[in-house]
Amino acid sequence: MASALHQTYQPVPNPLPVQILEGLPPFKGNACRSILDEVAYWLERSHSGAAIQDALEWLWGHQFIQTDDPDSPPIFPRASVVMRSEGGDKLIAINKALPHQKRLAIGLAAIRKSRGWNNKEMAVALGVSEPYMSLLARGLSDVKISMLDRMVRSFNVTSYELLPYAFISEVKNEKRR
After folding, report:
1. Could you give the residue range(s) of every CATH 1.10.260.40 domain in the chain?
2. Is domain 99-165 in CATH 3.40.50.300, yes or no?
3. pLDDT of residue 122
4. Distances 110 to 12, 31, 100, 162 between C-alpha atoms, Å
5. What is the predicted pLDDT for the residue at 68?
6. How far is CA 7 from CA 49, 55, 64, 167, 173, in A?
7. Residue 78 has what pLDDT?
8. 97 to 75, 101, 164: CA distances (angstroms)
9. Fewest CB atoms less than 10 Å from the CB: which of 9, 11, 146, 166?
10. According to CATH, where is 1.10.10.10 located in the chain?
11. What distance lies between CA 14 and its chain's CA centroid?
């Protein structure tokens, strides 16, 4: 059987890249923004220059933004303006369409993967039943604010790690026998 591609959701490492992306002009149109203006805007909002540059490079590396020079990363003076790419518009649309339950499932999967836990171990750490944890992990159950607060304290994570922005990555399936 030939290997095929399937899509999986991956969490965005922190919220700043998507916040920057949401503020950029859409792909369809002639608008763009100066890189220096964009950096100044986020510096005024108490983000460090290194964090802003990392976010811009992450967006450029995943082809969510583009610059006036297609081969240059968003570093001044090599590139002077920045705008969303077609992929960036798709990322914004995906995150607007994702229900909170699905975002929670993506966040729980990332926490589970980073700690090497399974649903049973997560349920024990949270103090809930394994079937309830399974429903949460599949995005099939709503949660109350008190449960989100308990997750933040029990897993020692931020609320962003529980409800991350996500992007779709294509992962190649291995051959099944």
Report:
1. 99-165
2. no
3. 94
4. 10, 36, 15, 9
5. 86
6. 33, 23, 17, 10, 10
7. 78
8. 31, 12, 13
9. 146
10. 5-96
11. 7
CATH code for the part of the protein at 5-96 = 1.10.10.10
Ordered DSSP codes for the chain: ----EEEEEEE-SSSHHHHHHHHSPPSSSS--EEHHHHHHHHHHTT--HHHHHHHHHHHHHTTSEEESSTTS-S-TTT--EEEE-HHHHHHHHHHHHS-HHHHHHHHHHHHHHHHT--HHHHHHHHTS-HHHHHHHHTT-S---HHHHHHHHHHHT--HHHHS--EEEEEEEPPPP-
φ/ψ of residue 172, rounded to 5: -80, 125
Largest CA distance in the chain: 56
User: Among all chains, which residue has been given the structure tokens 């339950």?
Assistant: 101
Q: By C-alpha distance, which of 86, 65, 62 is closest to 11?
A: 62
> What is the C-alpha separation between 38 and 165, in angstroms, rounded?
21
Q: Which of 80, 47, 58 is nearest to 13 (CA)?
A: 58
Query: Which residue numbers in the chain have pLDDT < 70?
Result: 1-6, 169-177
5 vs 100: CA distance, rounded Å: 26
Amino acid occupying residue 60: W
**pLDDT at site 77:** 76
